[in-house]
Amino acid sequence: MKNRLAVLVTSVLIAAGLSVALPQVASAASCAGTYRIVVPGFGHGSDAGGFYNFDQRVGYSAQLTSQSAREGVNELNRLVRDQRNVCPGQHVRMIGHSEGAAVVHIWVTANWQSFGNVNAVLLADPKRAPEGHGSGGLAGQPGTGIVGFPLVGVDNFYGNVPTVTICTDDIICDSTAPSGWLGYYPGTNHINYNFDANAYSDNGNGQWFYGQFFPR
């Protein structure tokens, strides 16, 4: 009854030559090209954390807790599913930095069998496994177990999802980085990454470690 009344009132107003403000319906990103979704790191829950040229940003609390990481994973999952429902054949490139990289890492490990046509780029991933180069990220260090699953622990299990990890003299992704904690301070190595979402390919698979690429 209410819907019929609303239609009737709208029709009367239009017939009278009066403008009607209709509610705006949110739409998904374009189905053209690659859907670029970014996940910012710790402390950047309400902004893009330096990323640009992207289609969607994952908004979450961005705190150093496993609850926050799960929140980010759930929101990433929702956004990917929503876009995939509208554009089923579109490629999805997800890029995360620091805790955001951990969020993407966790998502890939949990969902690689459920989603095809996706790839991941992990910048300064605290869950980075050494893969023969350097040391693992901080999530694998003694004492981090108090943070809890899934943020704690390192691995390089991405299923069949092409995944690139990038780490350069940054204690977050290489716990024995020569710079130590100095590399984490603002303006130093922890933000010395390319935050242009267009800078990465849809099929990279391996790791960049201190400027050298090692294919996986």
From TrEMBL:
Record's keyword annotation contains Hydrolase: yes
SUPFAM superfamilies noted in UniProt: alpha/beta-Hydrolases (SSF53474)
Signal peptide, first to last residue: 1-28
Keywords of the record: Hydrolase, Signal
Any one GO MF annotation of this record: hydrolase activity
Protein name: Cutinase family protein
Species per Swiss-Prot/TrEMBL record: Nakamurella sp. A5-74
